Amino acid sequence: MPSTCPPRRPSPVPCSLLGALLAASATLAGGAARAQPVTVPSTPAPAAPVADPATAPPQTLERVEIRASRQGADDTEQRRQSSAAKIVIGREEIERMGDSTLGEVLQRLPGVTTEGAPGRGGRVRMRGMGNGYTQILVNGERPPAGFSVEQLTPEQVERIEVLRAPTAEYGAQAIAGTINIVLREDLRQRLNQITLTLGHDSDHGQPELGWNRADQLDALSYQVSGHYAHRTSRQRSSTHSRTVEQDLGTGAETTTFDQIDDSLTQTTSDRLHLGSRLQWRLGPGSSFTLAPFVMLAHSQTLGQERRSRLSGSDGSASDYASALSEGNARYTMGRLQSTWQTRLPQGSRLELRARVHRSLYDAHTERAESDRSASALRSLEDRVSLRDTGWSTGGKLQHALLGDDGEGHELALGWELETDRRDDRRSNIECGSGGSCQSLDTDLGDNQHARVQRSALWAQDEWALNPQWSVMGGLRWEEIRTRSEAGDSRIEHRSAVTTPLLHAVWRPGQRSKDQVRMSLTRSYRAPSLNQLTTSRAIASRYPVGADGTGGNQPGSPDQAGNPDLEPELATGVDLAFEHYLARGGVLSASVFHRRITGLMRSVVTLQDVGYASVQRWVSRPENIGTARTSGIELDGKFRLAELMDEAPPLDLRGNLGLYRSRVDGIDGPDNRIDQQPDWSAQLGADYRLRSLPLTLGGSVTLSSDYAVQLSNSRRSEFDSKRVIDVYGLWRFSPAVQLRVGASNLAPRDYTSGSLVRTIASDGSVRTDRSSGSTAPGLTAWNLRLEMKL
């Protein structure tokens, strides 16, 4: 049968599916008794004479197979048609494991790792780079200050887009890449869904309740959602601190300090999300949308610590043997977003958006320390109040330019303006064993007021040169202005970056299943507000006395900002080969390289300070020089039946990333970018039973152990990670299904440590080593019932 797809622009519907649907439609129109093969001609055919039923030859009913497109295939098609390298994760993959938070979903994505102990979530990193290298967006916009992916549930998310190179539209603060979280917004389908989840973790129940409703009333479409979760987590950890002094002349070593701290922390939290999306159709191609969202959260933390002093003293202010702590925190956040879209003459489209938000965070912590005879030594009370208020606005104008050959440009122009204000107030009170109390507040930044304004202009052109080549070029200008006041200190900081970006895709032929991607980009990493402010945070273990005396150790430095920091700039090259399979599968191999100038890193030095009469060790961020990072990434997903005949109904997916980096000016061999592992990998499988409405699956996520040489005298070490997750899904009907999942099977200890080596004035070498071990968390189980009413 001849192809029914247009010759130049690939149809979003696969040719085989489109042809099958047309054939089926013609067959059904002809009647079941007289069905015959159908060929769709390009021009109308002349009318055929009507055959006499008595003399007509016998007809045979040919089998026409209609194969519905799976969502996974649609996600793969979006990836294939994208001008920039992009991996699309749809609802099917997001819901697969029955995760409670979006952070648990993200740690299984290709090239994505998380900080901290395995199986417990953490800040997200792409290509092993975090702390500002990885950009997180929600619906293509920067989220408000204080946002965390742990605040979102999988039910709220429609899809996740992983972009490995920056684009002009999404922003250039993405040296490692961008993760764009697209919230559910399909208001055309009627939905009334309830989700009941009962989990078990840390010997406690973890109930959750979710509700999602969508409907349409004339020109108004709406979606309302709510989610409540109660959680209890428990974590044990142990830290071994040891100080050794070595005489360089004799080589003799003396242990001057040896101590073990054991802690147990239990956190109980309640979280409520309420959101809505209201969309009015104003006419053909025109709509207005309002999206309010409210989040309420409360947590209580109880902590116990026990200290075993093996030898010596570290000179800290409190030589306690045990400590008890209790803390309470409340977080409230409200956000209102609006979007207006309209169609203009000559194929143009205009989108205007605005957002306002406000968040409040209040925390109160009390801590009591005792000696070995259980007598009180001192107590500490800490209060924190944070207020974040902000607004943003932006717009995008798109215009299609069609050439004489049918190919064309998609030209887009955009602008963004965002302002955030943060008020930070802290109060610290210390009481001694005799009952006397003193305030530890200083004029060094306990109360801080900051304002950050970001503005951007960008232009982007997607151009289909011919059926084999398509390119996307972009140019983005972005400016960040920061103003901060803390005590008597005031700073103003401005940085502006212009970033050109170019992406290209080459296909050997219009119907080829292979394609090659190339990107040449400029990106950057801006310093954070805390890195810029001149406020100081004094090491809690080594406070400054009322008379200004009291030193500290290089392993416990004071923290200070640097208003002279400049952004890191990176030039990047990406090259990828992709092979697409017939049933929605894909295999990909890619390489990347980034050259970073103005690398920011905290440098610890002994210096004179205005708040103490003695010199103290201070950690301050500085631009230290140049760094390079490169890597190879492999990823794929496919049905086993795509590779071998008569294969079981097994879906496979996996990815592997190999990373290398080097920071100039620091001795090797581990002079890498901070917290970048040598490799990370993930392998998953899903098996659909033919005899039962049951699907079984699981995944294994791994990353290597590694060490980071932060400077010639400071070093950090991190353990390897392994997370095993499994699930089972039973579909009672299209409207009811039950999901059982287990996360972090076979947990194990996770260790990390640091080493600081300094040379004393007498020529001896002092080595401070701290090794921390986090006990494995228990396996988390959950039972999840999903019902569509």
Automatic annotation (TrEMBL):
It comes from the Bacteria. It is found in: Cell outer membrane. GO terms for molecular function: siderophore uptake transmembrane transporter activity. Residues 1-35 form the signal peptide. InterPro entries: Beta-barrel_TonB, Beta-barrel_TonB_sf, Plug_dom, Plug_dom_sf, TonB-dep_rcpt-like. Residues 315-745 form the TonB-dependent receptor-like beta-barrel domain. It holds the Pfam family Plug. Residues 80-178 form the TonB-dependent receptor plug domain. GO terms for biological process: siderophore transmembrane transport. It is a multi-pass membrane protein. GO terms for cellular component: cell outer membrane. Residues 228-239 have a biased composition (Basic residues). Keywords: Cell outer membrane, Membrane, Receptor, Signal, TonB box, Transmembrane, Transmembrane beta strand, Transport. Belongs to the TonB-dependent receptor family. This is Iron complex outermembrane receptor protein. The lineage of its organism: Bacteria, Pseudomonadati, Pseudomonadota, Betaproteobacteria, Burkholderiales.
